[in-house]
Specification:
alpha/beta, seven-stranded mixed beta sheet, two-stranded antiparallel sheet, 26 helices, potassium ion transmembrane transporter activity, potassium, K_trans_C, potassium transport, membrane
């Protein structure tokens, strides 16, 4: 018995079903849900911002110039980066509702034809999501010249890909650092509620236990505990804003004056180099801002804007103002706690606030972990990461996935960082560099989107790049100066993942180039005759290939070494296109290889980088139905055509059976098979029938071909995959031999396979 996991129903998805005009009830419901999914990380930043800022570089003095300057920096940083940049500008650069680094890169790939996917086709440009309504490619002036320059120079395309991958690797690094600093800062409140002698032995072990529990919960999926996320974050935001209001009115009602930019000038003038270095701690107030754009696909622009503008942003400002108001009247902190969040919390509320903070830290960490899973899946779809096991934890919600290998790797790195540093100072230095690098990458890609996709002036794009880039470059320099004090961690993690991505991408591209150069000619297939020179037995043989045209060399290897082959052969290719989703109506491209009597077909299944790849029996049924629909819709004139090369180039767009109401349906009955003998060794076959609509256009020859396909399906299907051993050519450079013979070969042997049956063949690259 073969037990199969539940398959997610993505065929019901369609851009046509998108709500054009959302009701306010729907928008507010999405805004409520986004508080728990999107803003968990950002809302917990008050736990460690002031503590990290005043950790070493500057001191809190009785003049209050330092604390007022830090508050002014926090206010304007939150206003300019999350509010102005992301809410009002970047969120508009969605890729058919999807956001994130790869969404921007995908937009650029389509509008400038710079995609690194080798198996692109002109038919892909006809996809519904390939061109977004209302946005046209730049077709005049400097924008046209910029686009043509990018299309001509492969070096610029590689630089752009490298930029996108660096941002992606930093997001993965943030998936290690955010849980560590969030949980560690949350449990740091034990310093004020237990004795100093005991908290040293409790803090790190407790943080590690919470982290292990957090990563252990991942395989259950967020849908089981996700309903608690929004209430936890809302409770936390209410808690910190209420404490902030209390501290403002109780300690310093005039603290609002520090929001003036003048206090930033006074702060830098007094602290000078120390103040510049302390910007690495102030930077942490915007950690998690990128999630607003990255998680856009799960919500709507309006809901994310409402949640941030009316709930998250005011709560954070009140929290930071409240801490500053308290610290402006307390210059000597007891218990050697120095400056932190919990010292401004009233003593009677510290235990409840500690509990809520730990829950909020877990929620914030959960968001970045699931975001890391999603971005790894996108990298796999674009050929930039080895295939990994992707488990869909929900049969109803498309975006909820779990990757075991990545989950436990993140956990080990996270524990290593927590145990190795044992303080929030070094972890915050590392997290700050990862956060600001991702934002810099977004700013660079966004400036190109403004010109190439939005068709706006280059001056506007340069203004965007200079304004936000200069702010982020200032924070980046302050974070990079802390390289030896923890900031080396995201650089090291990103370097490791970047090497993996480049080695896999390079090996995959070279392997595809080899397959293209060594594919078999159609004349060779025609010379074999309808039987291909071997015995044709009942059944359907599915031969996987990455080629979208031509006959792969592995096919000649099969024909030469196998004594028999199936009566129906399908060369099928599963490829990803640079769009988030492919509509079910556009799922398959089906064509014929050789004359009709050969019964050899080509089928290309197209998926977007956010689509779910079905590997269940449903995919087999959709594949067979697409071939049957192709046979039915194929005109009788194709049988009279003598140009087989022209027939091979013709491919029809065929949707899944659920998308064409009047198309062919397949019905199979597993219970109607009768056995003549009880102890018969024969395996009972399912009876398969095609429900063909009444149509006089189906000629006798097409009905006979459908009958043969039906009988072949009854006999069974076999998946056949050529297992290639990739080696560098003799005489290749040392670096190439190391990359191909060791790096790529190691990744290939330890990545997930696509099929059950393998035949070996050596590919010298």
């Amino acid at each position: 018995m073969i037990l199969r996991r539940p398959v997610m129903d993505i065929e019901s998805w369609s851009p046509d079903y998108t709500i054009k005009k959302e009701s306010w009830r729907t928008v507010l419901a999405l805004a409520y849900q986004s508080l728990g999914v999107v803003y968990g990380d950002l809302s917990t930043s008050p736990l460690y911002v002031y503590k990290s800022t005043f950790a070493e570089d500057i001191q809190h003095s009785e003049s209050n110039e330092e604390i007022y300057g830090v508050l002014s920096f926090v206010f304007w940083t939150l206003t300019l980066i999350p509010l102005l940049k992301y809410v009002f500008i970047v969120l508009r650069a969605d890729d058919n509702g999807e956001g994130g680094t790869f969404a921007l890169y995908s937009l650029l790939c389509r509008h400038a034809r710079i995609s690194t996917l080798p198996n692109g086709q002109l038919a892909d440009e006809d996809l519904y999501e390939y061109k977004k309504e209302g946005i046209a490619s730049s077709s005049r002036g400097l924008g046209l010249r910029l686009r043509s320059t990018l299309e001509k120079h492969r070096v610029l395309q590689r630089i752009l890909l490298t930029l996108a991958l660096i941002g992606t690797c930093m997001v993965i690094g943030d998936g290690v650092l955010t849980p560590a600093i969030s949980v560690f800062s949350a449990v740091s409140g034990l310093e004020l509620v237990v004795s100093k002698h005991h908290h040293q032995y409790i803090e790190v072990p407790l943080a590690c236990i919470i982290l292990v529990f957090l990563f252990y919960l991942q395989h259950y999926g967020t849908h089981r505990i996700g309903f608690l996320f929004a209430p936890v974050v809302i409770t936390w935001l209410f808690c910190i804003s209420a404490i902030g209001v209390y501290n403002i009115f109780h300690w310093n009602p005039h603290v609002y004056q520090a929001l003036s930019p003048y206090y930033m000038y006074k702060f830098l003038k007094k602290t000078q180099r120390g103040g510049w270095m302390s910007l690495g701690g102030i930077l942490l107030c915007i950690t998690g801002s990128e999630a607003m754009f990255a998680d856009l696909g799960h919500f709507s622009q309006l809901s994310i804007k409402i949640a941030f503008s009316f709930v998250v942003y005011p709560s954070l400002i009140l929290a930071y103002m409240g801490q500053a108001a308290y610290l402006s009247k307390h210059h000597i902190i007891e218990n050697d706690y120095q400056i932190g969040f919990y010292v401004s919390v009233p003593e009677k509320l510290r235990w409840p606030v500690l509990a809520i903070a730990i829950l909020a830290a877990v929620v914030g960490s959960q968001a970045i972990i699931t975001g890391t899973f999603s971005i790894i899946k996108q990298c796999c779809a674009l050929g930039c990461f080895p295939r990994v096991k992707i488990v869909h934890t929900s049969s109803k919600i498309c975006g909820q996935i779990y990757i075991p290998e990545i989950n436990w790797t993140l956990m080990l790195f996270c524990l290593a960082v927590t145990i190795g540093f044992r303080n929030a100072k070094h972890i915050s230095n590392a997290s700050g560099l990862a956060v600001i690098t991702v934002m810099l990458v977004t700013t660079c890609l966004m400036s190109l989107v403004i010109v190439l996709c939005w068709n706006r002036s280059v001056v506007l794009a340069l203004s965007f790049l200079f304004f936000f880039g200069s702010i982020e470059a200032l924070y980046f320099s302050a974070s990079l100066i802390k390289f030896l004090e923890g900031a080396w961690v995201p650089v090291a993690l990103s370097f490791i993942f970047l090497i993996i991505m480049f080695v896999w991408h390079y090996g995959t591209m070279k392997k595809y180039e080899f397959d293209v150069q060594n594919k078999v000619s159609l004349n060779w297939l025609l010379s074999l005759g309808p039987n291909l020179g071997i015995v044709r037995v009942r059944g359907i043989g599915l031969i996987h290939t990455d080629l979208i045209s031509g006959i792969p060399a592995i096919f000649s290897h099969f024909v030469t070494n196998l004594p028999a082959f199936h009566q129906v052969l399908v060369l099928f290719c599963i490829k990803y296109v640079p769009v988030p989703h492919v509509k079910p109506e556009e799922r398959f491209l089906v064509g014929r290889i050789g004359p009709k009597g050969y019964r050899v077909y080509r089928c290309i299944a197209r998926y977007g980088y956010h689509d779910v790849l079905l590997d269940d029996v449903k995919f087999e049924k959709d594949l067979v139905c697409s071939i049957a629909e192709f046979i039915r819709s194929e005109g009788p004139e194709s049988s009279r055509s003598s140009n087989n090369t022209e027939n091979e180039a013709k491919m029809a767009v065929i949707g899944t059976p659920s998308t064409h109401a009047r198309g062919i349906k397949m019905w199979d009955d597993e219970d109607s098979t009768e056995l003549k003998e009880v102890n018969s060794p024969e395996v009972p076959r399912k009876r398969v029938r095609f429900l063909v609509p009444e149509s006089p256009q189906i000629d006798r020859e097409a009905r006979a071909e459908l009958q043969e396909l039906m009988e072949a399906r009854e006999a069974g299907m076999a998946f056949i995959l050529g297992h290639c051993y990739v080696k560098a050519k003799t005489g290749s450079s040392l670096i190439k031999r190391i990359v191909v013979n060791f790096g790529y070969d190691f990744l290939r042997r330890n990545s997930r396979s696509l099929a059950m049956h393998r035949v070996s063949l050596v590919h010298p690259l």
